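sorry for the late reply, my laptop died twice this morning and i had to redo everyting from scratch. anyway the thing you sent over, i finally got around to it. pasting the sequence first so we're on the same page, its 251 residues, then the predicted structure underneath. double check i copied it right bc i was rushing
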Amino acid sequence: MQKRRVFLLQESAKTNEELKKNFALSGEFEVVGTATDGLTGLKLIEEKKPGFVVMELVLPGYDGLFLIDKINAMGLDIKIIVLSVLSRDDVVQNAINRGASYYLVKPINFSVLKERLAELDRATDEKGMIFGKTKKISLEEKISRIFINVGIPPHIKGYSYLREGVKMAVDDPDIINNITKKLYPMIGEKYLTTASKVERAIRHAIEVAWNRGRIENLNSILGVRAYLGAEKPTNGEFIALVADKMLLEGE
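ok and here's the structure:
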């Protein structure tokens, strides 16, 4: 199997080295280069043409947001994963809007980063036009952008469980009518946890968005006033709303 080619662009050389060792141990990735500043990083990315760039936003030289624009403008199929100390909603949203596929807040478990890269690699895609080139936007990316818009941070467990639940509801819409006995246990089996922990983590993720006052963004995302905002949606309601959006877009 051909290894996935990764470029590491973190401000700390130590962080780059730790990530490089973890990628090497996984056996699935080849780190084709590293840099600790934006100027050097951009030159090497253009030269190496990796499939993935794992980057920080806080960088000397060129900052991360500028680099996202420049990388996308190259016209190459490079997926950008932001791994940053910055966790403000507006910063996360800006990075996603500019073209980052995922935004992970430090510190994270390496297995989470590895999973995100693997998902991007195997995702079922649809075509779209960005920066004058054909770019594929995966179902996972589209779901992630909705979650970011409504204020669900990527580093909490409920984020992954919710995404999996939406994907399952897209594949089998009837599963939403059997959320307790079927959907939660299936997610738990995949992530080696219990159905009750899945339910609690998903509920917590929705509560985080509710407490941030961002859950009402669902209406603008869906294009209709499906959510009235009087009280936070249940787990099943939230999953169904996002899954319906994906189905309407032809997923």
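The CA atoms of residues 1 and 7 lie 19 Å apart.
thats about all i looked at so far, will dig more tmrw
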